[in-house]
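It is worth pausing here to work through a concrete case rather than discussing structure prediction in the abstract. The textbook approach is simple: state the sequence, then state the predicted structure, then interpret. We follow exactly that order.
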Amino acid sequence: MKISKKDALTWFRFFAELPEDEELLTKQTEIVYATMYQIEAAVDRQNEALMARVPGLKSLAGRTYYVGPDGRFPGGCKSCLLGTGLSAVRKTNACNIRCKFCYNYGEMDAIPPIGEGLWEIGGTKLYEKDLDLLLSIQKKPTGVAYVYLEPFMEIEKYYGVIRRFHEAGVRQHLYTNGLLATEESLRALGEAGLDELRFNLGASDCADRVIDNIALAKKHITQAGVETPMTPEFFDTFMRKKENILATGLDFINCAELHLNDNNIGNYFGENLYACRLGYISPIWSRQLTLKFMRVAAEEDWGVVVHDCSNHTKLARDLNLKAKEGGWFGASGYGCEFSRFPYEAFLPVLEDESFRFVEEEPLPKGYNPGELY
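Step two, the predicted structure:
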């Protein structure tokens, strides 16, 4: 059904008032799905218009979009989207800053530890000395990523593991906000064999210290770049400091479409949201800012890759990973990250008179308020 915005708003106001444990009727679920489709279709139309204005827009096998020189496209993203995916390597359960877009916002003091001397690789707890056993038994991935949370809080623990994966020919990248990095630690990472370092530049609001550390990283590590959730704050600050950032010689800027969960959604209350394929929920402005960002990069020929790491990209990533794992046709780990769908979070976009659905129809008989039993 092509539900109208007025009918969708009426129903969503009702859904938002329901007790958390009350399940929807089948027809009510159809209304929710129809509303999510209408919002997503309108967002897609807006994004397609923005994409049409990006000069030299490129596609990586239809799985993601970018602008800039092909040779600077991050190898970790190729591993994620074309290879056998990325195995998450976890060690550090603490962070030195608090970001409102963080998926762990509000629970930083309650993040479970990995364990003394242990690493979590693919969900399994292992010692560094177990890596030879792991690599001798299982097929090695094309890449691993060091995540969770800020590795430079104990970066000296990482060198040995990085060196072992490097010797095994596994591509490796690591995420950091960059505030604690030093030339000594960056040099050590390069010597250990880290292939790629990704700075969450938005976490520090493009701090000068982090910009300097990107330049230092380029001296010692093959690829260095930025990966940051695209927010209005990051967009504005980057543009003000654009010349200094580009002068670091960075290779890429991954503009991640900000997606929300139970921890951080409260920080974006009142924003217009949409759900991609009934999965990730994001502010509509996040990808739109990325596409505007890419247009500037292409028009000004920045000489770096600017990557549209969107919800569409995340869907492609999970389809690729399941396929490489031998999953059935259509299998994917992509989906909604909310235990209960946040109906109230979609009231702002439905109340926004400037946001219009592409096509509307009256509700079918039996779907209007008072007709469902």
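Step three, interpretation. The chain has twelve helices and 13 strands. The longest strand covers residues 223-229.
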